[in-house]
Design goal:
This protein has a single domain (3-182), classed as Nucleotidyltransferase, domain 5 (2-Layer Sandwich), CATH 3.30.420. α4 (110-117) crosses α6 (138-162). The strands form three sheets. A five-stranded mixed β-sheet has the order 5-4-1-6-7. Strands 2-3 form a two-stranded antiparallel sheet. It has helices at 54-63, 72-80, 96-104, 110-117, 126-129, 138-162; strands at residues 3-11, 19-20, 23-24, 30-38, 45-50, 66-69, 93-95, 164-168, 173-177. The protein is an alpha/beta fold. It contains six helices and nine strands. The longest helix has 25 residues, at 138-162. 33% of the residues lie in helices and 23% in strands. The chain starts with a strand and ends in a 21-residue tail after the last strand.
């Protein structure tokens, strides 16, 4: 089965407030870069799309049997919807954050799951990368985005293999059962190489 694992990084147009009423102004956000793992291209490839190429990514999404992300249904799809002429939430989505929440009882941070399951963490914090687009640091922003895609895909592969993920807090470490997306066994792709295209 063909699937895409993706993540986006965003920017606010000049002069637009990043928060409204204390909440992140998602309605005003634009796509700076999309990072994606596309399972059916060249046996699985990591690729990046800049804002001017969003249309190409949207066409790929239409071809996917499953769209995978971390908090992408609420956030990434909402931002990307501004560029689409179809409802992204009607695609076959599998949101790892929501799947973990079903048995954990709250929304876990991607960083915490990476530390517990992969022994690694996200590259930078939001406060660090939020100005990359404004400052023209597109290579750094793309690298940051692709790293998040790689981490999400590795967690997805662990779910396919084990049916659970680990979650650790100050008190204990526990197994969280996670239902995998409907994928055939031959779609467990290698994730040890990344190709970033600007």
């Amino acid at each position: 089965m063909n699937y895409i694992t993706y993540d986006i990084e965003t920017y606010f147009p000049e002069g637009v407030a990043d928060r409204v009423g204390g909440k992140l102004n998602v309605d005003a956000m634009k796509v700076a870069v999309i990072g994606a793992f596309v399972s059916w291209v060249d046996g699985g490839i990591y690729v990046a799309f800049l804002e001017e190429n969003v249309g190409e990514f949207l066409e790929l999404m239409k071809s996917a049997d499953c769209v995978i992300g971390y908090n992408h249904i609420w956030f990434d799809n909402a931002v990307l919807a501004k560029y689409a002429d179809f409802d992204l939430n009607k695609l076959p989505n599998w949101d790892l954050m929501l799947e973990v929440e079903k048995n954990l009882g709250f929304k876990a941070k991607l960083d915490d799951l990476c530390k517990s399951n992969l022994g690694t963490q996200k590259t930078e914090s939001f406060e660090t990368y939020r100005h990359y687009h404004r400052d023209g640091k597109m290579y750094e922003l793309t690298d940051y985005c692709m790293h998040d895609v790689l981490l999400t895909e590795k967690l997805h592969q662990l779910v396919l293999k084990n049916g659970f993920l680990l979650y650790s807090d100050a008190f204990k470490s526990r197994q969280i059962a996670v239902s995998p997306p409907v994928l055939s066994g031959d779609q467990q792709m290698e994730t040890d190489k990344t190709e970033t295209l600007l």
